[in-house]
Amino acid sequence: MKKALITGVTGQDGSYLAELLLDKGYEVHGIKRRASLFNTGRIDHIYQDPHADNPRFILHYGDLTDTSNLTRILQQVQPDEVYNLGAMSHVAVSFESPEYTADVDAIGTLRLLEAIRFLGLEKKTRFYQASTSELYGLVQETPQRESTPFYPRSPYAVAKLYAYWITVNYREAYGMYACNGILFNHESPRRGETFVTRKITRALANISQGLEHQLFLGNLDALRDWGHARDYVHMQWLMLQQDKPEDFVIATGRQYSVRRFVEIAANELGIEITWQGQGVDERGLVASIHGDRAPGVVVGQPIVAVDPQYFRPTEVETLLGDPSRARERLGWEPTTSFEAMVQEMVAHDLDTARRHKLLASHGYNVALSLE
Ligand code: NDP
Ligand code: GDR
Q: Has UniProt tagged this entry with the keyword NADP (predicted)?
């Protein structure tokens, strides 16, 4: 039985990857952080009783800032594969906490690689690094492919640049099977609530039920290549199953603006919006409501507004990936379309909003869960 260790197992990708590896018969170890509240909501459905005979899903407390902790876990688990998905992954927040971001995202990667080497596991343990399209930042070529030069535009992206190159360096210097997946944005109903897609689907679902009135966003014109996280974790696994380690761009090759994402998500809820104003005066006005999915919305009411607090000091305006190499060498195709992904996210958040509305109508306080 193969053993895998996942850092960031409690995150969006970690949860889908753990499911995938358990399905494939792996023994899966995950590193979770100690928090004052439970932070395992995304993996509770696959939890296994540690007292049972031979559990295949095992959680360890740990942190990417803690060398001795990482070394001890690696020594204990002796994994065949390590997936380094743990990170301070929010680009905007990285401007607020640049040093911590560097410690976790850059040096955390070095700590893992060095621990593998220190323990003499460099010929046994394969290593996947969660690299990112944010490396392209101020884009030098469109679409972006493996050979496109990097130009990071945030403390997050600069930290990830270090992680990218230290992974390449350990591969070349020590012959490790170590590779980078340069993944473009990928989303799902499990996406963190402060990333733009989930922020939109969650807020619009709440607005449709009259639980919220307005959604505040930053740059509506940013362009992204959005895929589904379930497809992308399959790719992470595939990258560690090849004869030799290589870096791959994983993307859909299609691009949409944040504004278009709002329109498509709203339309899913039976809301058609028209845009008025420009820049920070921009408002998304409700032009019409069709069907019965948005009983809480008043026609003509503005439901989207731009708030400059969500603008970034340096923005990544446009990202579009070219996944040809992954298609040719790994036979990979995304299975979920952009439209199906938005539908799935909206349906999930509408279901939650309806339950909150029901609870509120019976006197329960849903404020906490709407924060
Ligand atoms: P999430 O933010 O959903 O998950 C991040 C995970 O990292 C969480 O489990 C989090 O724990 C954990 N983590 C944060 N800080 C630490 C730390 N100091 N020590 C150990 N673990 C830590 O990210 P995603 O699942 O979306 O992304 C997975 C990886 O892929 C990240 O590295 C991200 O940067 C990268 N990536 C993501 C893309 C995307 O579009 N989703 C695209 C390209 C790259 P906790 O739950 O306790 O917060
Ligand atoms: P990104 O994702 O920065 O691409 O990083 P995010 O969803 O945060 O932003 C995408 C674009 O939307 C614009 N935007 C807003 N973003 C947020 N979060 N909130 C808003 O209100 C808002 N309004 C407009 C942003 O300016 C940006 O242009 C994600 C993360 O998962 C990274 O970890 C990963 O490496 C990259 O994707 C690929």
A: yes
Give the ligand with the smallest distance to the CA of 137: 2
Test site for ligand 1: of 84, 85, 249, most ligand atoms within 8 A of the Cβ? 85
Closest listed residue to residue 154, CA positions, set 107, 98, 196, 100: 98
Give the pTM. Answer: 0.97
ipTM over 0.95: yes
Do 291 and 162 belong together in one domain?
A: no
Please indicate, yes or no, whether residues 175 and 304 belong to a single structural domain of this protein. Answer: no
Q: Domain total for the chain?
A: 2
Pocket residues: Cβ below 6 A from ligand 2: 89, 91-92, 132-134, 184-185, 194-196, 199, 217-219, 222, 224, 258, 310, 312, 315-316
* Whether residue 17 is found in the same domain as residue 109: yes
Q: Please write the tens of the pLDDT for every residue from 326-351.
A: 999 999 889 999 999 999 999 999 99
